[in-house]
Amino acid sequence: MTRTRKPGISRRSTLALMGAGAVTFAAPWVARAQVKTIKIGMPTILSGRVAQLGTSSRNAVMLEVEKVNAAGGLAGRQIEMVIRDSKGQPQEAARIARELVNTDGCEMLLDGEASSGSFAVHEVARDLGVLCIHTCSEASSLTADPKQHIPNAFRCVRQGIHDSIVGASYAAGIAKTKGLKKWATCSPDYAYGRDTTGEFVLYLKKFAPDVEIISESWPKLFQPDYTEVVTKILQAKPQALYSCLWGGDLTSYIDQANIYAMFTQMEVFAVNMADYTALTVVKNLPKGIHSGDRYIKTFPPTPENAAWGDAYKAKYNEYPTNWSWQNATAVMFLNEAVKKANSTDGKKVAEALTGLTIKCPFGADGTVTMRADDHTLVGYAIGWGTTIPQEPYVPDVKAGDWKTIFELEAEWKKSKGYT
Amino acid sequence: MDLDALASCLASPACLVTQTTSGLIIGMLLFLVAVGLTLIFGVLKVVNFSHGAFYMFGAYFAMTAYQLTGSFALAILAGAAGTAILGLIFERVFMSRVYGRDVLMQLLVCYAFVLIFDDVVRMIWGPEFKSMGMPAAFQVPPLFIAGGVVPPYYLLLIGVALAAAVVLGLGLARSRIGKVIRAAAQNPGMVSALGINTGLIYGGVFALGGMLAGLAGALAAPVRSLTPGMGFSVLIESFIVTVIGGMGSILGALIGALLIGLIRSFGSLGFPLFTEGLMYLFMVIVLVSRPTGLFGKEVA
Hints:
- The complex is a heterodimer of chains A (419) and B (300).
- With 419 residues, chain A is α/β, with parallel strands linked by helices.
- In chain A, 47% of the residues lie in helices and 16% in strands.
- Chain A has two domains: 35-159 and 302-378, Rossmann fold (3-Layer(aba) Sandwich), CATH 3.40.50.2300; 161-299 and 383-415, Rossmann fold.
- Chain A has helices spanning 11-26, 28-35, 51-70, 90-102, 115-128, 141-144, 160-178, 191-207, 227-236, 247-258, 262-265, 276-279, 303-316, 322-341, 346-353, 402-415, and strands spanning 38-44, 79-85, 108-111, 131-134, 153-155, 182-186, 212-217, 240-243, 267-270, 274-275, 290-295, 357-359, 367-370, 377-378, 383-386, 398-399.
- Chain A has a five-stranded parallel β-sheet with strand order 2-1-3-4-5, with helices on both faces. A four-stranded parallel β-sheet of chain A has the order 7-6-8-9. Chain A has a four-stranded mixed β-sheet with strand order 10-11-15-16.
- In chain A, helix 5 (115-128) links the parallel strand 3 (108-111) and strand 4.
- Chain B is mostly helical and 300 residues long.
- Chain B has a domain at 35-126 and 151-227.
- Chain B has helices at residues 3-11, 13-44, 51-69, 72-93, 103-125, 152-174, 176-186, 188-193, 198-220, 230-245, 250-270, 275-289, and strands spanning 143-145, 148-150.
- A two-stranded antiparallel sheet of chain B has the order 1-2.
- Classes of the chains: A alpha/beta (419), B mainly alpha (300).
- At the A-B interface, helix 3, helix 9 and helix 10 of A face helix 2, helix 10 and helix 11 of B.
């Protein structure tokens, strides 16, 4: 006997379809909320000279987003990242940010731009009212200046003024013990270089009033050759040198200064040395360069931080950068804020973010806080130490004291007319 | 302005030695790039805007060869030979098609290759900056000459560049090939009518120019960081050198490069905020007083 099957839809499947339809129409918000992903837009720098930093930002975001999605997403919604290349151009960053929200339907922004671009994205956030977390700009004024303040924007980044206070207090301690009075500076000739050096010198003189700056050099950004700067500094015979050169400029400078044996003639304080992008590239890293921590997996010296650094390396076959930990932290903040607000609504999440403290591998005490009054990150691990030519590169980092940072930061804000 | 620092440096032999060698090494590397540029312009009448790419490739070739073999001599050789071959291919396949065309057309082709070559480097070696590292033989304390500091590596660098200048100058002035090249620069039609393969001459000159830039890149690799786009900053200064020295003049390129080197090294003492400006100011002065450059020939 053969079973015949009539063409068309069977009674059983018709019933099933009707049932499903009834559920969908009866409770559409349930269906949508469970199905619809949440899009988060991110303009960052994926080509050009600093592409490595943008790529490391994207990597870190994806690493964390995968974890959040695996745990069920943001309030049950899977995150879909839409990441675009701004080529480091502010106007392009602003255009992309606007497009991500208006055309792509992104409900939140992670702004992975350097300082120049982040101010442009900030204005877009002000205009559109979309929740925006800056993840790379260290320029203090972005959050310190009350004119910049908007309720929907946050900065999850270390800050120039914090670095200057911690760096200068560390350097002043060494200046006092070793009697370093004559200092030289050598920093790139643009806003970041000038501001950071100015703030460092200001606090260095405050902590160690005997210090005198006897020589200043301002090579241009991305200058290929520093020989004339190196020899000029050697002529001035300072006892210590401060530099905020970074990336390829810093490694060029070290290679060129090395053959003049500069590092045996003075103490060198290079705030941007302790970043894997520079540490792993320099072939003959001199011993004993003083540096601020950018990102190293041994500071803060916790198993969580080491595990995070190793997980990143295992996935991407290179170590994370300073931009990586900041971007990862931003995703952690979003995740916790959405949990607290129990909603993915931008306004509610922004309210939850304000003043939020979360557990974080990069916190000085295992936590970091999004400070309520200026929407900026505080409590992250910050410190200085000296280099050795192989891993762990900076074996002993002296942690900065957040109490001092807060006091001096408040004074600095007052002096700038921000409070 | 800090004229006291400049005056006290000029009065001290130690400072004079240090700053002069510092100027010489900046100048000599610039010369190697600029001389290729000027040579190509002199013979081929093309402003090779993509010349900086050969400097970049020279550095990357040298780094790779050094990593593979551990030999610095082989690294230099790889930098120079690799860019010579690249120059030959680039000239035969692409540049030879735009000779005699509109200058804008030539510029466009060259600029396209600036971008293409940068992307090629990015694809092969990655976008992040690299460092070759100083060979062990030169990881020695600097020499002290009359109290001035001179790193031994820079002595080698100046020596190699000077040797290249002498060989090039003598070769062009005295050898048979040199005569043919000069003749081809003056009247290519006549040279071709005499049964000489001008295509080969052009390719050869382009390869030579590329090789010199590659040599500069290879020599600079141990002390400068390698990034896609590193050729561009060198190119601008090389143009200044060729303009000061006179487009097409080898002696001009040498003198121009050394002057720029010395302006940088002494300028950074006396005019720390105006070192770059000083370079351009000097170029303007030369252009106003001698529009063809210091050693350029009057255009008939």
